[in-house]
Design brief:
The complex is a heterodimer of chains A (279) and B (285). Chain A is built from 13 helices and no strands. Chain A is mainly α. Chain A is globular and about 70 Å long. Chain B contains 14 helices and no strands. With 285 residues, chain B is an all-alpha fold. Chain B starts with a helix and ends in a 6-residue tail after the last helix. Classes of the chains: A mainly alpha (279), B mainly alpha (285). Chains A and B meet through helix 1, helix 3, helix 4, helix 5 and helix 9 of A and helix 1, helix 4, helix 5, helix 6 and helix 7 of B.
């Protein structure tokens, strides 16, 4: 094998290690026995102990956070998916009046918006503060995903719809019985994008949600990691080092993503490719 | 036929409206949006004369420029290099690993990097100390903070960013490579004369987005990594708006700042698109 290939492969190996190392490190820290000094590269845990996980998982706000996050993921994803599909389908029809105008209208919002303060005021005025709707409604239509869906619909052969029409099907039927079954890859992609977005979102929860027991998991995580405390009962008294707890917290926040990731990443990628090459 | 669209047009009509309409009413609220007096451009005057404004604008632009110079080519180079790997299993595995950081939120990554880069207990500084150099306060030292922002964002984004380039690479006609081999071209010739030119359309579009986005900043990243110690080098427009606006309740002023940023961003994207149209055949619209 020639020099270049050798160097390239070495580089790729090094690269992969760099990508993966932060997670390995934290995992090791989170399972190490108490009192281990954090003074090395942490590649092997010095004894395994799961007490940091027990502590964290027993913490009340982790449970409520998890519940809020799941609630938001389910609600947000399902509603956004339905609205997105309907809009994308409508905009994919060439005979749709005002089509270009409407499309530009929606795309415009990708480049320009009122800003943080006006959005905050709007949510306040709508009375959505401290409600789960404040997390779901602002991103009701995922514009980018909608565009990709629209492009996908546009690429489906028109004869399918025409033959359905000849058979007497109306628009809604065509949508649900012809188009949707054919669009499984793109729907899967959009669903996954939405789920990841909602799972990771934390800032809106921070500014719109007041009650501590309605905060989403990522925000609860953030509070733990940054302040090093678990609010009311500070378990830190039991000689569990803060770093260990933080590491366990981070692991818990990341694990769901890492779990579904290998199985679903091909859908994510397909979606991007489909969207970018056509759009 | 129109009904689905019309119903959802109304629902979605509201969605951009809250962005666009409120933006123009923002100048006049102290008590309620409609009833507040017009203050015209007062907030903008205040904005431009504030000494801290220079600082945040500089930070925003500098950080974006650094990210552009280092972060824009990174995924391209990565895609080119990985494309040369012939063992497809290795290629797939490396690719999969490379996308992973993109899906982790900055909340989590903030915690990760705060620990990893810690001057006292972090492994990075451990290695640095081992080499005989004093600990570096990556996240606490103004002279290191911007660099840290750039490199951590590359770490997070290189894999995901390379997807588009991989897609472009996959679309290159393989017979071109064969013909080049016959003519005696080596790997590098092929890259320079075939691969890169065929990626030009994609690169142009990505570059348009990147340059137009120079006034934008990654609030998520900076908010999770910064602290008052590094405001001098790391405070950018959106973090400033957040602190002044939501924390400090200076609503109208913060909105003016935010609007300033949005308008510039908007103008930039139109400009860069025009330039791209003029000099090449590729543009956004």
């Amino acid at each position: 094998m020639d020099t270049f290939t050798f160097l390239n492969l070495t580089f790729m190996l090094f690269f992969s290690l760099v990508m993966v190392y932060p997670f390995v490190y934290l995992f090791v820290v989170s399972v190490s026995v108490n009192g281990t000094v954090l003074s090395n590269l942490m590649l092997n845990p010095k004894g395994i102990s799961l007490d940091s996980y027990q502590t964290i998982l027993g913490f009340k706000f982790i449970k409520t956070g998890f519940y809020s996050s799941v609630q938001r993921v389910l609600l947000g994803t399902s509603i956004s998916l339905v609205v997105c599909t309907l809009t994308a389908y409508a905009l994919s029809k060439k005979m749709m009046p005002f089509r270009t105008l409407l499309t530009m209208f929606m795309v415009f919002t990708m480049f320009f918006n009122g800003g943080l303060i006006p959005s905050y005021l709007l949510i306040t005025n709508l009375g959505l503060i401290d409600s789960i709707w404040s997390l779901v409604v602002p991103t009701l239509v995922p514009t980018f995903s909608m565009l990709i869906m629209r492009n996908y619909f546009m690429s489906l052969p028109i004869d399918l719809e025409e033959s359905a029409k000849i058979d007497g099907a109306g628009d809604w039927r065509i949508l649900f019985q012809v188009i949707v079954p054919l669009s499984k890859p793109i729907i899967a992609t959009v669903v996954l994008w939405e789920m990841v977005y909602h799972w990771n979102a934390w800032f809106d929860s921070m500014i719109y949600i007041r009650s501590a027991d309605k905060q989403v998991l990522q925000l609860v995580m953030r509070n733990i990691v940054l302040s090093g405390q678990l609010n009311d009962n500070t378990f830190i008294a039991n000689a569990l080092t803060p770093e260990k707890l933080k590491a366990a917290t981070i692991m818990i926040a990341t694990v769901p993503i890492i779990c579904i990731y290998p199985f679903l990443q091909k859908y994510f990628i397909k979606g991007i490719i489909m969207g970018s090459l056509k759009g | 036929m129109l009904i689905p669209a019309v119903i959802y047009y109304v629902v979605i009509h509201y969605y951009p409206m809250y962005g666009a309409q409120i933006a123009f009413k923002d100048f006049r609220f102290n008590l309620g949006i409609g009833g507040s007096p017009w203050v015209g451009l007062k907030h903008f005057e205040e904005l431009f004369s504030a000494p801290s404004f220079r600082q945040i604008l500089t930070n925003t632009l500098l950080i974006s420029f650094y990210k552009l110079i280092f972060g824009f080519p990174a995924p391209i180079i990565f895609a080119l290099l990985l494309n040369e790997v012939l063992q497809s299993k290795v290629k797939k595995i490396v690719q999969t690993i490379s996308y992973l950081p993109h899906f982790i939120s900055w909340v989590v990554l903030g915690g990760v990097f705060i620990q990893l880069l810690s001057p006292t207990s972090g492994p990075v500084n451990l290695v640095i100390n081992f080499l005989g150099i004093e600990s570096i306060y990556f996240l606490g030292d103004n002279s290191w903070f911007r660099g840290t922002l750039v490199w951590t964002s590359i770490w997070k984004g290189i894999g995901w960013g390379s997807i588009i380039y991989f897609a472009a690479l996959a679309g290159v006609d393989t017979s071109l490579y064969e013909a080049a081999s016959i003519d005696g071209a080596n790997r590098f010739h092929k890259m320079i004369y075939i691969t890169i030119p065929s990626m030009v359309p994609v690169i142009t579009i990505m570059l348009i987005f990147a340059v137009a986005g120079v006034i934008n900043d990654d609030f998520d990243q900076i908010f999770n990594l910064y602290s008052s110690a590094v405001y001098q080098s790391g405070d950018v427009i959106s973090t400033y708006v957040y602190r002044k606006g939501l924390v400090g309740s200076e609503f109208s002023y913060a909105t003016a700042v935010g609007l300033f940023k949005n308008i510039i961003g908007f103008v930039l994207i139109i400009l860069t698109n025009q330039i791209a149209k003029k000099y090449s055949e590729y543009s956004l619209w």
